[in-house]
Amino acid sequence: MKIAIMGFGTVGSGVGEILMNSFDNLAKKAGEKIEVKYILDLRDFPDSPYDCFIKDYNIILNDPEIEAVIEAMGGTVPAYEFTKKLLLAGKHVVTSNKELVARHGTELLQIAAEKNINYLFEASVGGGIPIIKPLINSLTGDDITGIVGILNGTTNYILTQMIKNGKTFRAALSEAQEKGYAEKDPTADVEGIDTCRKIAILASLAYGKYVDSNFIPTEGITKITPEDAKYAQAMGYSVKIVGQCVKDGNGVYARVCPAFISSESPLAGIDDVFNGILVQGDSLGDVMFYGKGAGKLPTASAMVADLVDVAKHRNTHIRILWAESEEGYLHDGSKQKYSYYLRVSGAAEGFEEYAAKKLPGLENEFAVIVPPVSEAELEELLKSSPFDGHEILGKIRVI
Ligand code: HSE
To answer: Which ligand 1 atom is at minimum distance from the Cα of 154?
Structure first.
């Protein structure tokens, strides 16, 4: 099978490396050799062992020998146009591009179905962790009731380095960038946008209907303070950025937010670049997926696996249920009930029922956890006794 790689950055070059180093093994697994015929990138790579670099995308599009294309360009321009044309030309596409899948997945999957080819995107969520295939294959016997995931390697790395190793936000972010975890513009990581795209993809697959990431309430890492982390530890929690989706009647809730996670949860101990995705099925119960969620080779590994899958399904479209959704399908997140950790100013008298927690070194303040409430109910609670007159210094959902 002759293929092309579009984009030879961190992930694309990782795919090239695996395809070259594991050429014979992959040929055995796929049932045929997978040969890289072209690599599309505007840059030059004089030291690369490959000598098939091109700068004109049309060469790939118009070459009938190319059956599958790796899209590791990132972003939607020109990746959307390129991918659409390739699919319409009957070429399979494998991508790690979560932005593109989250935005145009419905249309691109529909074209793949019509053309009886495949648009596969295992690498778009959780880096090297198999989560897409389990959702569309292994877990189809279950109705998925909810998913909670630590889905961004960069922010999990930063949080771990800040909380456990006392590093500054800047130093930890620089390290994540050096290690190839962060997006080109790390704002997408830090502000939760990357997690948002990933939970949108998981929710669209889990319930078979498109969830638009543009409407998912999203908060990033900048909402978490060192004091929150100290309270979390003292109260038996880890503090993480999570993506969550929950089935709610005929619709879904979805959200990205900082979260207090009980130390008893399998998600609590997931540190550094690792991602963890906890899926709740109605028959199976909880199932947990864990592994490296970012980085060159982990992400490339998932793309190569998709490529092998393409080789095995040359003339078959692997059915992926991801339909258009009706208006209102994504439910109003403000109504979803959560327990909250609250960091409160002043003295803790009157807060006995909330088992207020005080920490040495943090004078004239304390923390409590309140039982599940909607956003409107929380607002009311904070206006009433004993909260009225106290300033809320921090507020994080308990998940
Ligand atoms: N920037 C992403 C992360 C890369 O840190 O998780 C993997 O999608």
So the answer is: 5
